Amino acid sequence: MLIFLNRGEFEIINNLFGIKDLPREEIVKILNFAAEFKREFVNGKRCFDNLCGKTVALMFFENSTRTRVSFELAVKHLGGVLINISLGESSISKGESLVDTFKTIDAMKIDVVVVRHEASGFPLYISKFLSAKIINAGDGLNEHPTQALVDAMTLIERFGSNIKGLKIAIIGDILHSRVARSDIYIFDKLGAKVVVSGPLTLMPVGIENFGVKVYGDPKIAVKECDVVIALRIQKERQKKGFFPSESEFSKFFGVNQELLEGASSRVIFMHPGPANRNLEVTSEVLNSEISLKDIQVTNGMFVRMSVLKNLFK
Ligand code: CP
């Protein structure tokens, strides 16, 4: 399901729907706050008061480990009150509509709703019914803005604050990936160059209009790249046989040591997780020294702390 609505500047700054409409200055501010939170945390600080007196509801209608847990930790470290609601436990299972459920939560004077939903555009749509601020924790095939902020933070930590000109290859299931869309938007705004590669059946029509180069052959895509990002094969969304078999996908598009030999000598590997080991990436690469997957997870909490703080500036 796709839901399209117009959005105003006020809505963009007071909510986080996506990276596409987020001004570059806001991105830089969020990344700077995240780095500051990390510095303070590493130095032993655990309690912050940015969300003192605020209540945050997590409403996840798709499964999650990283995003959900890091938002939970972020709210708790910032001194906020946390409410967790999932589809199976809510009155939606008794027939209440989604809109009525969200309005019920809103009536309890919640300050922020963090929502993950399978419908593209759902966070913006539901925001029309609520007075709470909304953070998109992943909507269908549209955007996953906090993951893109995590990826940008991780790159800046590795390559320095100016990632302009960095060459980044995103490989795999671009069609179903909200992370790919948000990553493309954020890397473009920060001046990096993005190329994508994957089976043509998993390449969205018009992807070139995002300002990226498209290569059928991942060996050409990764040539002299500084960063290689593998995307998860989204088995739950693969209903039409987009590729002949997993072993064939892995053979032609899986990220392995041999593929990375064509990249820059300083190449690093990232994966938003969860990963299908030995499908879109070999265990050898995932566990290697150039893999930043665990740093991405660590940075997730600081980025989400920063996004929450930024809503109440
Ligand atoms: N990257 C990501 O969104 O992971 P989770 O589904 O575990 O939250």
Task: Give an overview in words.
The longest helix has 19 residues, at 24-42. This protein folds into 2 domains: 24-142 and 297-312, 3-Layer(aba) Sandwich (Rossmann fold), CATH 3.40.50.1370; 145-293, Rossmann fold (3-Layer(aba) Sandwich). With 313 residues, it is of the alpha/beta class. Helix 5 links the parallel strand 3 (112-117) and strand 4. The protein is globular and about 55 Å long. It has a 5-stranded parallel β-sheet. It has a 4-stranded parallel β-sheet with strand order 2-1-3-4. The mean pLDDT is 93. It is built from 12 helices and 9 strands. 38% of the residues lie in helices and 14% in strands. It binds phosphoric acid mono(formamide)ester. Phosphoric acid mono(formamide)ester binds next to helix 3.
Write the layout of secondary structure elements.
Blueprint: H1 9-14, H2 24-42, E1 55-60, H3 66-77, E2 81-86, H4 98-107, E3 112-117, H5 122-127, E4 133-139, H6 145-159, E5 167-171, H7 178-189, E6 193-197, E7 213-215, H8 218-221, E8 227-230, H9 246-253, H10 257-260, E9 268-270, H11 283-286, H12 293-311
Parallel strand pairs: 1-2, 1-3, 3-4, 5-6, 5-8, 6-7, 8-9
Bound molecules: phosphoric acid mono(formamide)ester.
Keywords:
5-stranded parallel β-sheet; 2 domains; 9 strands; 313 residues; alpha/beta; binds phosphoric acid mono(formamide)ester; 12 helices; 4-stranded parallel β-sheet; Rossmann fold; globular; 38% helix
**Euclidean distance between termini CA atoms:** 34 Å
Q: What is the CATH class of the largest domain?
A: Alpha Beta
Uncertain segments: none
Please give the largest β-sheet: 5 strands, parallel
Output mean pLDDT. Answer: 93
Q: Mind telling me the CATH superfamily name of the largest domain? A: Aspartate/ornithine carbamoyltransferase
Give the neighbour order of strands across the main sheet: 7-6-5-8-9
Strand content: 5-15%
Tell me the structural class. Answer: alpha/beta
In this entry the ligands are: phosphoric acid mono(formamide)ester
Shape: globular
CATH architectural category of the largest domain: 3-Layer(aba) Sandwich
Q: How many beta-strand segments?
A: 9
Query: How large is the radius of gyration?
Result: 19 Å
Instruction: Give the SSE order as H and E letters.
Output: HHEHEHEHEHEHEEHEHHEHH
Instruction: Report helical residue fraction.
Output: 25-40%
What's the CATH topology label of the largest domain?
A: Rossmann fold
Q: What is the count of distinct domains?
A: 2
Number of helices: 12
Tell me the quaternary state: single chain
